[in-house]
Write the structure tokens for this entry.
Amino acid sequence: MATPQSDWTERSLELSKLLARAGLGDRAAFATLYERTSSHLLGVVLRIQRDRAQAEDILQEVYVNVWRAAQSFDAAQSQPLTWLSSIARNRAIDSLRRTQTQPQFRSTITSSTDEEETDVYDTVADSAPGPLDLLSRASDARALSSCMQALSAQQRQSVALAFFDGLSHAEVAEQMRQPLGTVKSWVRRALMSLKSCLESAVQRDEQQPGA
């Protein structure tokens, strides 16, 4: 369920106005939107496509799509950064499918008001496949849906904002109006649970005849 606009941050309200103006063909508003969001969306893309040059090319495709689709943005359905991040994520995944590569992730957080801020994947980083790597090997998205349902409501919301919308810990905490440490704990535990669940799903798929 989308957060009521009365609870939106000033940044979300500003981005919503810029999208509305861009949807009317306002190029100046679109340029400002690019300035305000391109760094964040590049980070979203780099979580999936680690090649910087390819990620920058994808980012340009993202903004072409945003310019064309800005008029369809519905503030009643999602916040602007969530909508933009979804477009960026989908374009990055499409790019990976075209090149037949596996998702790779890197931390894209360069600064934060919290001195100990880390990427949401740092807490479960190891040499084994991560959640999206495992998902890419699963037969379809049903595995992820089932695994997500096994999480608590707070874990599900926090990991969706961080994992799918590309928000930092601090941004997730602001969005959920919760202490930063609490959000970090929710995300860490959720990713660990997802990883275990998806590993089991992949193993089941690989044991299926013809796999």
Notes: The longest helix spans residues 180-207.
